[in-house]
Design a protein that fits this description.
The protein has 3 helices and 8 strands; from the N terminus they run H-H-E-H-E-E-E-E-E-E-E. It has 144 residues and is α+β, with helices and mostly antiparallel strands. It has one domain: Beta Barrel (Lipocalin). It has an 8-stranded antiparallel beta barrel with strand order 1-2-3-4-5-6-7-8.
């Protein structure tokens, strides 16, 4: 009986050590949330329409470009899940709410009463490309 207790303790410690090593140092899936953040101010560099004859009805960003094409338009994503679209002279075009679904690699932006999905096509520390199937538009945003 005296040798049974120390042997059981040694086996238990070995099992815990092996389990914790896998838990601490095992392969972890990479997600967008761990590598990039949308928070901050982004300049809207370009918009590209991938459909030949589509009418763009997205009010969020299309309206911002139609107001004054000469001013750079920026979008600020805040930590509290709000965003603001404004021009260089701080004229605010639109405000709203957003959230990021890292599993779907999508940013959902609330327009009117509905959330519009913007698929993340490419994302680096300094740029992001968002695509909306609703209007077949790809937006390129550059971090400021």
């Amino acid at each position: 009986m005296k040798t049974f207790i120390p042997a059981a303790i040694i086996i238990a410690v070995a099992c815990i050590a092996l389990a914790s090593c896998e838990w601490l140092f095992g392969n972890k899936p990479k997600s967008i949330a761990n590598t990039h953040t949308i928070n901050g101010t982004w300049q809207i560099k370009s918009m590209a329409d991938s459909s030949a004859n589509a009418r763009n009805t997205t009010p969020m960003l299309a309206a911002a470009f139609s107001n004054n094409d000469t001013l750079p338009v920026s979008i600020s994503f805040n930590i509290d899940s709000t965003f603001t679209i404004s021009s260089k002279n701080d004229s605010i075009y639109n405000k709203g709410i957003y959230y990021v679904d890292t599993a779907k690699q999508t940013i959902f932006i609330k327009e009117d009463s509905l959330y519009t999905p913007y698929s993340i096509k490419q994302w680096s520390d300094t740029a992001v490309q968002l695509y909306t199937a609703k209007d077949s538009i790809t937006y390129t945003l550059i971090k400021q």
